[in-house]
Design brief:
InterPro entries: Bact_HTH_transcr_reg, Chorismate_lyase_/UTRA_dom_sf, Tscrpt_reg_HTH_GntR, UTRA, WH-like_DNA-bd_sf, WH_DNA-bd_sf. Keywords: DNA-binding, Transcription, Transcription regulation. One of its GO terms (molecular function) is DNA-binding transcription factor activity. This protein folds into 2 domains: about 60 residues, Orthogonal Bundle (Arc Repressor Mutant, subunit A), CATH 1.10.10; about 150 residues, 3-Layer(aba) Sandwich (Chorismate lyase), CATH 3.40.1410. Helix content is about 25%, strand content about 30%. The strands form 2 sheets. It has a 6-stranded antiparallel sheet with strand order 3-4-5-8-7-6. Strands 1-2 form a two-stranded antiparallel sheet. The relative contact order is 0.13.
């Protein structure tokens, strides 16, 4: 892996993850000390600690005072798993639903889409367009455009080979960039004419649009998704409780 000139803690986490996977740091061995890593990567102790925290969250290492950072596993063991209060827990697709990839291409986001996604106009992203389908020959549940950083382009081929694996999980496992927070917006829309034939829906029929922003521990967005679901095929259910005051 060629590291960028200006290092982000996620770059260091990814580099160390690859070193562990390649056997450079065998299970049971200790990683270099924080100060040694600072010297090696020419960065601050704060950045190194954030990178090591990511490895710890992935289950790759354990950290103990006066002992150091010990390698515990070759592959991430702590995948992002939705809880009852998470965004993904609101969406119950069921295990029978898979992703049917329609296209994977680099795109430049401009105009209305840039405003909707609250990203810089002219920014480049890798877009994965897909349908969510099941094995029972029913119409697709929805259409999803996922936008990830172009640096993750090799994920494109993996996506086709693993239609039942979350894209965010692939990014986490391959690059060590872990989801810390997901922001979501739900809007009422009409089924766009260009999507209607593949969705087997009437153009301009009622639908729900769900936009999600996936953020890392530093608050940076590394993945975005826009999903359109015909109204009769999708529902969002949640339960609200009065807080104790």
């Amino acid at each position: 892996m060629k590291l960028p000139t200006k290092l982000h803690y996620a770059d260091i986490a990814r580099h160390l993850t690859e070193g562990i996977a390649a056997g450079q740091f065998p299970v049971g061995s200790l990683l270099p000390t924080e100060m040694e890593l600072c010297d090696h990567y020419k960065t601050s102790r704060h950045t190194i600690r954030a990178a090591l925290h990511e490895l710890q969250q992935l289950g790759l290492v354990s950290r103990r005072k006066n002992v150091g950072t010990r390698v515990e596993a070759v592959r991430p063991t702590n995948e992002f798993r939705p809880t009852l209060s998470s965004i993904d827990d609101l969406v119950q697709f069921g295990s029978e639903h898979i992703r049917k990839v329609l296209s994977v291409e680099e795109t430049t986001i401009r105009g209305a889409l840039a405003k909707e996604l609250t990203c810089d106009s002219g920014s480049k992203w890798l877009r994965i367009s897909s349908l969510r389908i099941d094995a029972n020959d029913r119409p697709p549940v929805g259409w999803t455009d996922v936008y990830i950083e172009p640096a993750y382009a090799e994920i494109g081929e993996l996506i086709r080979k693993s239609p039942d694996t979350l894209i965010s999980s692939m990014i986490e496992e391959r690059y060590g960039r872990r989801i810390a927070q997901i922001r979501q917006e739900i809007r009422a829309v009409a089924v766009p004419e260009n999507m209607a034939p593949l969705l087997q829906a009437e153009p301009n029929a009622p639908a729900l649009k769900i936009i999600r922003w996936y953020q890392d521990a530093g608050g940076q967005v590394f993945e975005m998704s826009v999903s359109v679901h015909p109204s009769e095929r999708f529902a969002v259910s949640m339960q609200l409780q009065r807080s104790n005051q």
